[in-house]
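**User:** Everyone, produce a chain:

**Assistant:**
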Amino acid sequence: MHTQVINLTRFGDLLQTQPVLSGLKARGGRVSLVCLDSFKGAAALLRDLDGVRVLPGARLLAHLDRSWPLAVAELTAWLDTAGSPGRVLNLTPTLTGRLLGRAIQGGDVLGFGMDTHGFGQYSSSWAAFLQAASAYRGCSPFNLVDLFQRVAGLDPGEFRLRAPDAEALDRAGALLSAAPGQRHVAFQLGASQDYRRWPVSAFVRAGRVILDRTGRSPVLLGTASEGHLAREFAEMADYPSTDLTGRTDLPTLAAVLSRMDLLLTNDTGTMHLAAGLGVPVAAVFLATAQPFDTGPYLEGSISLEPDMPCHPCSFGDRCPHGLACREAVDGRAVGELLAAGLAEGEWSATPAFPARVWQARRDARGFMDLFSLSGHEGQERSRWIRIQREVYRQFLDQHPYTDAVAWTGADSEFRSKLEADLRRCALMLTLVEEQGRLLSLRPSAPIRPKFLANCQNLEDILAASPTLGVLGPLWRYQSKEQAVDMDAFLFLCGRYRELLEMFGRRLALA
């Protein structure tokens, strides 16, 4: 069977579909990819593809500005050459992705689909969870790569991108020929948003320690638009570095990374490229970035976070602390950690380290997980993530619940608020269930407006909870899908009741 995978997202997310492509290919049949024309170069880094179809997104938008019939004509011509894949897997939850999937397939789409009335559809609970979790920092305990694989119906697999070819390696060798020393570490100074960027001065301090302790000089990577950061680095550093910002296309960037002993980076697409090439990664996560969901999918890689109670912050919130997290991860301490790891072949940190340090390792079920090297496993956030991973995995796979992971530690304000949220949600869910049962017996009962209002109230209560927030949009997506059949809706209510009860048992509620 021919499976066509749609991914219209950015560079890093596109790379992270590699295990899906490999998993589908291993099952047999052809695998092709639909991506935006701006990321055609990134698609060349992927393995296990029988073809790539490039959607001319920018040109279609330009046609829409001039005359929508031109855009329709071009899209129709593009669709006429798309062929007829046996199935379509859409990993892009936007309206554009859903429309494209339906236009190609004309029927059911795996992942994110659309029904005949224009309403969104989800082929599995994992797909609904993936979209819901993207907006909630503290309620997203799974790495995006694992989520992609579960949406595709695959078990966790290997993340391995295409190795650089000889020409790219030659270009990389020429660029690095003037770099001081024989061995190097790469620094990715930029980030998608400036507030998520580790200060250049911190990179400079880390580079000084690494050079002094190991003899490895930094190679600065980034786009031409990030060249000012490299110039700032050179002005601040009292030691040599090699500036390659704006000098590498994607194949050459991959080749340069393959010659590095380590990449020190912000949360970027370059981080995912290095992980897919097997290059050791140390990544700094600031503001809204957190490693549990967007960290490098590479065992042994390390992720660093500011040890601040407000981290990670929510999207759209104005920072009341003046972006203090950007200065909270000390560059010299990071340099000492990395220098020791490069010299000894393993990473180590103590509770005295001035940041949270996590190392990536697979858990017992093969999902990528993070384990603390700095004594932060006992923090409330860490314990709650552990519980969420086990409970949500069983909920989404519709497996019987087990009590493998439980809350440990003394009572706290965090736990008390979580208990209160669970009780409040359970009471509202019970009311929704009872009203739903009455409507199943008497569809014309005047209680329907109250029933609909309470369904919305349940969503609002869930969405407002800092610990259960992901369940708000998840409930909205799933309850609307089941609303046409009251028996199916009540079955869904039962599943949510079991979910809340399991969380309660994990917290040892009476």
About this structure: The first strand starts at residue 2 and ends at 6.
